[in-house]
Amino acid sequence: MIVRITGTGSMLPAKQVTNLEISQIVDTSDEWIRERTGIGARYLSTGETVASLATGACEKALEMAGRTAEEVDLILVASCSSEMLLPCSACQVQANIGARRAVAFDLNAACSGFMFALNTAYAYLQAGIYKTALIAGSEVLSKIMDWEDRGTCVLFGDGAGAVVLEADASTNAGRGLIGFVQYSDGSKGEALVCESRALHNPYYSEESKNTYVQMDGREIFKFAARQVPVTIEEVLQKTAIPKEEISYFVLHQANARIIEAIAKRLDMGLEKFPLNLDQVGNMSSASLPVLLDKLQREGRLDRGMKLVLSGFGAGLTYGACVLEW
Ligand code: UT7
Q1: What pLDDT, on the 0 to 100 scale, is given for residue 208?
Q2: Which of 111, 153, 194, 321 is labelled catalytic?
Q3: Model's pTM, two decimal places?
Q4: Which CATH class is domain 176-324?
Q5: Stretch(es) of the chain classified as CATH 3.40.47.10
């Protein structure tokens, strides 16, 4: 069974905030943020939610795929910043778009969330269990940022991206998603944390907690620069595709310097590593699908092109897949 992406969509909040504007909130500068990260601006929610952004992205992806919401069997929303603990964002999306037949649930693997959700849906479709899936990465990270911590709040942005993934038995389907690898290393989890609310029940009360993102940026940087190239080499070897055949390496947009380091280690030209963090910052699970949608809508993806997607982040989690567009 061929399983391929047939539509992409994205939705960003209405408000874009430049580095200059951020420098009026915390002690930073446009120069520092650009030089150290490649980020020039990001979108921040002024009321948009994980569910509303995911809904917008999913509607656009369905439209591109030429599918109706009623044809969707499975909805997965990857997020680490949902405003609702219950119900999950995927169920809210299901209700918003009217995908009555779909089963819907969320998946949290931080910045690798979209990648892992895509692989999960692929496995369902490959097994013949479902035929049409909607997969979104959606974040309102500004809600979990400490706006007094310049080491984190300047990096992240809000937004959502989505794809339609379909099982296709036709002869001209191409190869679609060819293979993936994915890993977790919980022993290094403390490098990037965000605690939930403190426990208070009739029998136990915790101290109040820091419920904002706390990050060891250097540790994450080293991990990504070292591990992502190895993971990409592994998925290429597993799928027997030479790296020279890859048109684009679509990587999680955490930091332009991380992406440069990965390109160097893979010995591939930077022109094969598209960037959008200049405009949107790091959107965690939304990074990959928003960039994919941008490439598609700019006409840069042709049928038959081979792509590598790779995500990495808190957990620690990381993975990569190879697909033919
Ligand atoms: O999606 C995955 C999630 N996270 C990541 O991918 C993050 C990966 N890590 C990074 O991108 C980088 O480590 C950062 C961009 C977070 C930091 O860059 P760095 O080059 O590793 O800087 P640093 O943490 O070593 O800090 C260097 C200096 C420090 O000052 P001193 O101690 O040298 O005086 C920081 O206090 O830069 C200072 N600094 C800032 N200065 C201006 C830290 N943040 C800022 C800031 N503006 N926003």
Answers
A1: 86
A2: 111
A3: 0.97
A4: alpha beta
A5: 2-168, 176-324
